Structures are given as C-alpha cells and as structure tokens.
Amino acid sequence: MLNLQIIIGSVRQGRGGLSVAEWFEDIARKDTRFTVERVDLAELNLPIMDEPNHPRLQRYTHDHTKRFSEIITRGDAYVFVTTEYNYAIPGALKNALDYLGPEWAGKPMCAVAYGGVSGAARAVEDLRRVAVALKMIPLVQGVVCPLYAQQRDDEGRFHGNQTQTEAAAETLNILAEMGAVLKARRLAAA
Ligand SMILES: Cc1cc2nc3c(=O)[nH]c(=O)nc-3n(C[C@H](O)[C@H](O)[C@H](O)COP(=O)(O)O)c2cc1C
C-alpha cells in the first residue's frame, strides 16, 4: 500500500484550495492502492524557514521541522494542490518545500492546479522546477482547473467536471505505478 499525501499549498483565510483538495481527496480515498493522508500547510503553520543548517544535512533544531520531516518521510507519492500567486506557487508552499531535503527525494509528484484563466499553469511549471531541485520525480499527469470558482456551489464545494475527473484517475494511475517502482528502489537502497 502506498501512502499518498495530498499537500494543500495555500493557507490564507477563505482559501479555495481546500475545496479543490477535498474533491480530489474524495476520489483518492476510493482508490484501494493508497492510504491517503492530507497534509494541510494551514494546519502545520510552519514559520518562515528558520533552520540554521542546510536541510540536506537533516540536522533540524526545531520541533516543527522534525514533525514536518516525519510526515513527509512517510509519503510515497505527492499530490500538490496549488494555485498561482503572481505566476508562481504560493509562498507558503515554497517555504514548506524549502524546509526539507532528502525527505522529498526519489518520490513521484503531480499537481492539482486551480486558478484563473490559466488554471495556474505557470505555478505548476514553477513547482516542477523546485521539485527537480529536491530530486522528486515530477510527472506530467495532473488536474487543471481554470476559472475553478465557477465550479463551486453555494456551500463552496468544488465539483470537478468529466475532464477533470478523468485526469484525476489518470493521475492516480501513474502515481500508483511510479510510486510502487520508486518505493521498491528506495527500499533496495536502504
Ligand atoms: C496574491 C494573489 C495572487 C494571485 N495571482 C494569480 C495569478 O497569477 N494567476 C491566477 O490565475 N490567479 C491568481 N490569483 C487568483 C487565484 O487564482 C484565486 O484567488 C484563488 O482562489 C487562490 O487560491 P486560494 O483561494 O486557495 O488562496 C491570485 C490571488 C491572490 C490572492
């Protein structure tokens, strides 16, 4: 069984990211290939990166970093639910990525992106670039939700359309496949 972590990258009050994450999470939880863990950066409330040592050394001095390291270490595949702030990923997400090093490495990642007309396409490219630096394995599959606010109901729930639902299934398929291959690789190297 693979531990799929759904990382919610926006933290502001009234964020729409939670609604998109909940939609994807509902689909993922029905998939028996995964245990699903939500990693909500708003709940973790990490300060601006404040570790004195480079994360590659994993010599963490703060409890919040040690806790975050434990969480990300147990992930086998990552789905980042991200929007776009000024053509890039939200600062809170970049901050969280910067906190750790080897914890992210050698694991597959996809994005579920939501935003305005562009569907956060530039943020996804930004995220992939950072993921490469952290030695994650970025995959092209993912979900794009342009003008996503129009797909929210009166209670704020997000309803994915058919294309997005199919893309979610495709995303889970590749994460199951690559997640298993890369987990075996990590276990063999351990
Ligand atoms: C600071 C800020 C910058 C934004 N920049 C972009 C942008 O570059 N491209 C885009 O498509 N939407 C942009 N938006 C609109 C967001 O797509 C929209 O507000 C979305 O709800 C943000 O996600 P969140 O609600 O989870 O924070 C921006 C929103 C904020 C608050």
TrEMBL record:
It comes from Paracoccus amoyensis. InterPro entries: Flavoprotein-like_sf, FMN_Rdtase-like_dom, NAD(P)H-dep_reductase. Residues 5-143 form the NADPH-dependent FMN reductase-like domain. GO terms for molecular function: FMN binding; oxidoreductase activity. SUPFAM superfamilies: Flavoproteins. This is NAD(P)H-dependent oxidoreductase. One of its GO terms (cellular component) is cytosol. PANTHER family: CHROMATE REDUCTASE, NAD(P)H-DEPENDENT FMN REDUCTASE LOT6. It comes from the Bacteria. It holds the Pfam family FMN_red. Gene3D superfamilies: 3.40.50.360.
